[in-house]
Amino acid sequence: MxxxxxxxxxxRTANHTIRSSAVAAVLAILLxxxxxxxxxxxxxxxxxxAPSAASTPTLGPPPPGGPVPAQLLGVWLLHTANPxxxxxxxxxxxxxxxxxxxATTYRVxxxxxxxxxxxxxxGAVVVNNTEIDFFSETSGEPLCHLRLPYDVxxxxxxLKSGVLHLATLVASGYYGDPCGRLDxxxxxxxxxx
Length: 193
What we know:
Strand order of the largest sheet: 3-4-5-6-7-8-9-10
Order of helices and strands: EEHHEHEEEEEEE
Structural class: alpha+beta
Number of strands: 10
Strand content: 25-35%
CATH class of the largest domain: Mainly Beta
Distance between the termini: 89 Å
Helix content: 10-25%
CATH topology of the largest domain: Lipocalin
Largest sheet: 8 strands, antiparallel, barrel
């Protein structure tokens, strides 16, 4: 850089000389753009309260529906014809994965000396005609990183010849469920003998 007292400072590059007034103008524009994109300088931004670190996330309402019908209540064992071999690696095995349904809750766990036991999963459930929705409790730790209303796994259910079949209703998330409930997605269950 070269310059004299009271004169403009110059920046020399291989082919160009840029005066400090041009550099200052470009820097001023960039600084104004960065400040506006960060929300700085707005009168309305000063009126918006900052979120509290101690605030609790607001949960949405549970999906519409009522209690699990009487014919579905109780204990069921996984019994899927031609199960996906990848599920066996996750410990989702016929006769060794148990689904328990109460009027308002569900629980899936490994049973019968499952060689690949899994952590139990549990949550709430509502039924609306042939739709059954599984989701996290409204308090406590959720099954996955999502909370209501984003963690709802929506399924249809059928009960034929003693076989309860669950089929994903909405193709979202992993295996059609935003929380990846692999032991429910397109699976069949029977009553234990």
